[in-house]
Amino acid sequence: MIAKKDNKESMSELLQDIESLKLELIKAGSDRGLNDPGTLQISEQLDTYIVRYQRLAAQKSAL
User: In angstroms, what CA-CA distances link 59 with 11, 27, 54?
Assistant: First the structure.
């Protein structure tokens, strides 16, 4: 039971982080361009968070 609760909290936190990074990425892309190293770094970080979220979602559905 505790693992499910932790997954929900983690998923909720990840969703918040993903939404925040999406906004940051849009702003960075608009201000600095899509090929800017900072923009690319944000994009890579966002990709990492999305993969983590997808893994948690897959674990949750397997339970």
Answer: 11, 33, 9
Distance CA 11, CA 18 (A): 10
SS3 34: coil
> pLDDT tens-digit profile of 14-49?
999 999 999 999 999 999 999 999 999 999 999 999
Neighbours of 63 (CB within 10 A): 7
Taking the C-alpha atoms of residue 10 and residue 37, their distance in angstroms, rounded to an integer, is 29
For residue 62, the model assigns a pLDDT of 84
Which class in CATH covers the domain with range 2-62? Answer: few secondary structures
CA torsion 47→49→51→54, rounded to 10°?
-140
Strands (E), 1-63: none
- The tokens describing 49, both together, are 């968070």
